[in-house]
Design the sequence.
């Protein structure tokens, strides 16, 4: 079985700019919603996107509990 290494490692040799901080990242990136539209780096995903998602989740959960 032959592996096309150029195709396999393409995402590790080309970079994309994060839609939040505009720093370059390698690979596929992360979904930046609900903070921004597009793809973001791992740092922004960890420090901004995940906390925003958790905050939205807990706000929604509290709203649902308050309106039972």
Sequence:
């Amino acid at each position: 079985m032959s592996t096309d290494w150029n195709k396999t490692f393409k995402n590790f040799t080309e970079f994309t700019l994060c839609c939040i901080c505009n720093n370059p990242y390698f690979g596929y990136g992360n979904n930046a919603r609900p903070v921004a539209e597009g793809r973001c780096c791992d740092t922004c995903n960890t420090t901004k996107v995940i906390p925003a998602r958790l905050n939205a989740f807990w706000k929604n959960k509290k709203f649902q509990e308050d309106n039972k």
User: Anything to note?
Assistant: The chain has a mean pLDDT of 87. DSSP finds two helices and four strands in the chain. Residues 5-66 form one domain. Strands lie at 15-17, 24-26, 30-31, 39-40.
